[in-house]
Amino acid sequence: MISTIQIKNIGIINDLSINLENGLNVLTGETGAGKTLLIDSLGIICGDRFSKEMIRTGEDYSYVEACIYLPQKENAIEGNIIVSREIYSNGRNTCKINGRLVTVNELKEFMKQVVDIHGQNENQTLLESSSHIGYLDSFIGKELVSIKQEYRSLYEKREQIQKELKENYGDEKEKQRKLDLLQYQVQEISVANLQEGEEEILEEKRKIMLHAEKIEENLKIADVALNENAIDLLSEAMKALENIEEMDKSYQEKLEQLKNIYYEVQELARDIQNAKGHTEFEEAERQEVEKRLDAIYSLKRKYGNTIKEILQYQQQIQEEMEQIENREEENQKRLQEQEKIETQMRKLAEEMTNLRTIAAKKLENSINEELAELEMKQAKCHIVVKTREEFNKNGLDYVEFFIATNIGEEEKPLNKIASGGEMSRIMLAMKSVLSEVDRIPVLIFDEIDTGISGHAAKAVSKKMRKIAKNHQILCVTHLANIAAQAEHNYYIHKIVEGNKTKTKVEKLNDEKTLQEIARIASGDINAISLEHAKQLRAS
Q1: Cβ atoms of residues 85 and 55 within 8 Å
Q2: Strand, helix or coil at 427?
Q3: Which of 172, 322, 342, 431 is most buried, judging by how many CB atoms fall within 10 Å of its CB?
Q4: Is the distance from CB of 536 to CB of 517 less than 8 angstroms?
Q5: How many CB atoms lie within 10 A of CB 461?
Q6: Which of 396, 385, 475, 471 is nearest to 436 (CA)?
Q7: Cα–Cα nearest to 325, from 175, 449, 192, 193
Q8: Which residue pairs, CB below 8 angstroms and at least 24 apart, start in 72-79?
Q9: Is residue 148 within 8 Å of residue 367, measured between CB atoms?
Q10: Are residues 12 and 59 in contact, defined by beta-carbon separation less than 8 angstroms?
Q11: Distance from C-alpha of 274 to C-alpha of 523, rounded to nearest angstrom
């Protein structure tokens, strides 16, 4: 149950703290006093969307905190739990569960197990078709539990086998798909006939091709400078030194050095002259180099940063192909084990289907009886149990609740019902039947009495009192009948302090409760309305 709610800076709510009790808590008050803001605040702590326009004028943040007590249950958190959410005008969110920071989604998932908000537009758990099989199974009770546990154990084993098969390519289609991919990659690399070092050679050749004209021009200049100038000048210098080499030993040494230089320059000149003939390339040759480099770049993008890495990758995938082929025997054993498990699962699933089919009839009859008591005698609930081919964690069944609100109308899924008043009573009928098995401890009803009055209003109030035996209920209402059935009544009103409007909540004693019931019933508090309030309270 929720024991305390604290709200700060939401709309006209400044700083509000409410202590709630177990059973049926009813909140009443005049329009605009802040009842809707209170429900919106509970929605915020349940992970609903928040608009920064909701932050109180002049403040830069809003804060909602709830203290929740959960009795010990299997696989559930127990004890006192503090849940809070702080939202700033810049959009920053801080959500905590028992002081631990959590995401909004984590907060939402946790609170879905604790609070179910019923209003005109909320997406309640009961409206989600995925939850219907859980409600039906809870209605069946212990008879289904052991079967379901045995099935779940087998289901988890099957999931593990399928995971192992997937990792080992035990599925024939997956295996062939993988082999085809690897074979394609091996083939693509093999056809390229890559050679380590060839990329560098091709890059160098491409560079020469791109600058062939400039290379040719400068080689000609170098050729002329060497063959027509430098060699002749060196030859003259050599002759000059030959004329004086006998005069001094040092001249002989210089002549020897000059001869070496002369021969080196001659050799260099020949190399440059030969190079001039290799700077012209055919366009087809240039295109061939570009095409080869493009092919290498393409393979590098897929398989490695260098030709060496590509060739290593080719070796790896060839080994992987061999491993996949060698796993066949191992996978066959897994497939045989899976087949045995599925045979057991199917048998258990059929047992669950039979139980659900029988229970669905009983549950829908009970709901229809409740609907009749809620002045919806023409409405009919129909629970559909469909069997599918694929196993899921609940067997082979898919369960969905349908409703036809009037004779001759087509039955529709619960979330397709248009009338708010009808929706309210349908929810109450289902909650009344399922209240003992519904594990969500807190139910919040936000003005679900819209569109009902008279006998229907009285019936609704009785149902809510019945549901409150197994749940904590927080109900915002305008109906005197519901207020009269409350175990705890709260009055919401607004005051003005310091030129600002604030919301206040007062827990009413017996005398004030009668006065509030009288006010709701007749709009005035007098002897007649008070007597009527007493009668409603006693009924």
Answers
A1: no
A2: helix
A3: 431
A4: yes
A5: 26
A6: 471
A7: 175
A8: 73/439, 76/113, 77/110
A9: no
A10: no
A11: 115
- Measured between alpha carbons, how far is 228 from 222 in angstroms, rounded to an integer? 10
What separation in angstroms does the CA of 21 have from each of 12, 30, 465, 507? 24, 22, 14, 11
Region for residue 375 given its phi and psi (left: phi exceeds 0; alpha: psi -120 to 50; beta: otherwise): left
CA–CA gap between residue 363 and residue 259 (Å, rounded): 116
Report whether 385 contacts 132 (CB < 8 A): no
- Report how far apart, in Å, the C-alpha atoms of 455 and of each of 198, 355, 461, 462 are: 93, 36, 10, 11
Rounded-to-integer distance, Cα 343 and Cα 336, Å: 11
**Residues in CB range of 282: below 8 A, 6 or more apart:** none
Contact 51, 512 (CB under 8 A): no
- Long-range CB contact pairs, 287-290, < 8 A, 24+: 289/202, 289/205, 289/206, 289/209, 290/206
**What's the angle, vertex CA 168, arms to CA 187 and CA 393, rounded to 5?**
135
Strand, coil or helix: 169: coil
Q: Is the pLDDT confidence value at 278 over 80?
A: no
Q: What is the pTM of this model?
A: 0.59
pLDDT digits (tens, 9 = 90+) for 213-269: 676 777 777 877 877 778 878 888 888 888 888 888 888 888 888 888 888 888 887
In the chain, what are the domains? 1-114+440-508 (3.40.50.300), 191-323 (no CATH), 511-539 (no CATH)
- The DSSP bridge partners found for residue 349 are none
In the structure encoding, which two tokens stand for residue 362, read together? 């009983």
Query: Backbone phi, then psi, for 85, in 5-degree steps?
Result: -145, 125
Residue with tokens 């019923």: 118
The DSSP result for 271-326, as a single string, is: HHHHHHTTS---HHHHHHHHHHHHHHHHHHHHH-SSHHHHHHHHHHHHHHHHHHHH
- What angle (nearest 5°) sits at the alpha carbon of residue 297, between those of residues 296 and 299? 65
Q: Which residue has the tokens 């295109």?
A: 287
Give the CA distances from residue 64 to residues 268, 413, 505, in Å, rounded to whole numbers and listed in that order: 89, 34, 16
> What is the DSSP secondary-structure string of 393-418?
TTEEEEEEEEEE-STTSPPEEGGG--
Name beta bridge partners: 93: 87
